[in-house]
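Troubleshooting log. The previous run stalled partway through. Resubmitting the same two chains, unchanged.
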Amino acid sequence: MKKLYVLILAFIALSFLVPETAHAIPAFARKYGFTCTMCHTAFPKLNDFGQRFRDNGYQIPGQEGYEKNVFEIPPPISMRTPVGFSVYDSKQGATSGFNVYGLDLLAAGVLHKNISFLLIYTPRIDEPAGDYAGPNNGANPSQLGSMESANIVFSNIVQNALNLRIGRFEPAYQVFSSHRSFYIMEPYEVYTFTTPANSYLFSDNQMGVEATGHFKSGFKYGLGVVNGNGGNPDNSNYKDVYLNLVQIIGKGDGQSAGQRIGVFGYYGWQPTVLPGSVVAPTGETNGSGNKPFYKLGGDVSLNWSTLNLEVLVMGGNDDKALNTLDPTKDYRYSGGFVELDWAALMNNRLIASVLYNWVTPPSYDNGRSINAYSALVRYYLGDWTAFNVALHGEYTYREIGTTNPTKDNLFTVLVDFDF
Amino acid sequence: MKRAKYFLMLAVLIAPSSLIAQGSPKQQVLPNITTINVHSLGPQRIGNLPPVPVPPDNPQTSMKVQLGKQLYFDTRLSKDNTVSCQTCHDPAMGWSDAGPTSTGIHGQKGPRRAPPVSNAAYNPLQFWDGRAASLEEQAEGPMQNPVEMGNTLDNVVETLNGIPGYVEEFKQVFGTTPITIAQVVQAIAAFERTVVTTDSPFDRYIRGDRKALTPLEKQGMAIFNGKGHCTACHWGPDFSDGRFHNLGVVQTGPSKVDNGRYDVTHNPADMGAFKTPTVRDAGLRPPYMHDGSEKTLETVVDLYNRGGGDDDPNLDPLIVPLGLSKEEVKALVAFMRVALTSNNPEVAHVKPIPVSELPK
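Second attempt completed without errors. Output:
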């Protein structure tokens, strides 16, 4: 029993240490000769312009068809790596060390008018040493090898109103992107919270197809059909669906100006009998006994000058057949976060932010409840075209569980570079 | 490959264009450059201007340029001999006028502001609404515009054919008599193609003189190319995408409603959209915008910082509130006002040709 407890703790501590990979795409900046703040409040968080550029299939709105395609520009490849030093302090003791927190390899570009693509590969990182199996005997590499994104975008099938993304992509319901958060060490906890016997993860990029549209009135939608297993082959014949609706009030896109409110819902299925008897050459199985789960939530983004307040609240419900902890009832939880970002100095060279995360599981699972308080400061070294280096300091105090909670502190200073 | 060609052309051009500026007296045929339009290459970096694109059917020659210059400053092109191109496009006023909109014959006020003639040669389309495809086509406009020069093209040709000095010059340049209107506009356009500003502090900085810009101006450049999103439209060497956008500029002046590009295309998306003007030398020519409604560069930046004018249902999607601080506005304005103001003696300080030296 004690051993199990230690194992769970170790796992939690490690999942804490695996940073969210994140992206900003200097290949675009290089193509146009822009500095990062054209599209980012400060990288990697998108500003209104960047959001509209993304919504338009990586084409500057109004320049569709005039954009240089990937063959007419320098290789559209980018990399992002945060490297630095962390101090982790928990009940069990303290650790510290230098780390490479991740590596993203990105390629993106326009292939043809209204046809573009995005590829993000994160190689598996087990290092420090090549013959070292990695933390937890290789079960938890410091970064997973993952084709995080591989999608093609068909834009403006109906001008602004219908754009299609196919492949693996960041779903539209992640209005506050887990990949473009300023926070490198602290995730949006409610995004990464897992429910029993369910492989769906809110923070994951999904495989499938998504329709998005945006309108002059400030209304936006995202509607998708996905496997719901992240990067893995599907394990049932049931597909998941989601809908995300957003309204922007005032000028802007809600990222760096204007006020944005939204609601989202995700309805998915999880097989209870695995594996199925049929395995396709492409890896899918026909797992059966599919049981439903859903997530519902709302989000608000308020902007004033260079202050941005982001609030997201969501709840989840898994069918009782998926509730291995108490099969007599559905598994229900809720959670969310509040983040306040401030951009300061010329050209937003300084970012300061505070973030509060909470997750409230059902009472019989309250050993996994989370309250986390984070703060960060990022200073960008320059206004260069198509690359930047940020000095990043981030601190999180986290409590897990309610009675006699584990408390830990993680302090990280790192250099985040992207080119 | 394309790029190599482009640079070759650039090299070939730079030498002779400096000769034109000195007004070499000999008839000298300059190498012909096919119309390469920077705008057809898609969004690009801000930088030094490439050689001017010249249409194959109107090659630059030094005598043609000189003839065009005379016509440009000659009030006899107007109905009552009071107005020349210079009246509204004065070299001393950044090749524009005092504004807010132009004043033509009999003191009539036009509905729009005079855009600069300098660097107009790089515009893929001329006028605020792009209704003329070339400088040649454009030049016919003001002569027959009742509130500008108030003339007819037939009358212009008749007047010029009655001036022996011009007949002789046109014959030398084009080899034929009598003078035709096509020749008149070709000569004017050839002159306009020499009105190019290439020597601003920004240009020197791009050519490698790291001290050409002050730290404030450099910050302004970074904002222009970053947080301000200015290069989303004011891109490329001439700081313009050559396309049309609605910024929600409040319509002022004689014309109560100005549909802009819509009147040319009848495409609802173009309602209230105007051509992106170059911001090179903008410091020399307040007030700003198609109706001259913004008095200073500061108020222009304020407009952008607010996210454009209010209540325009057709506001361009690239226009969003910017959250620029006072210091950032100051830097941005310094970049435009100082760093983008050129000092090409032959362009910035062209002296009008005195009446006594015009052909008789």
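Takeaways: The longest helix of chain B spans residues 2-21. Chain B touches chain A through 40 residues (CB under 8 Å).
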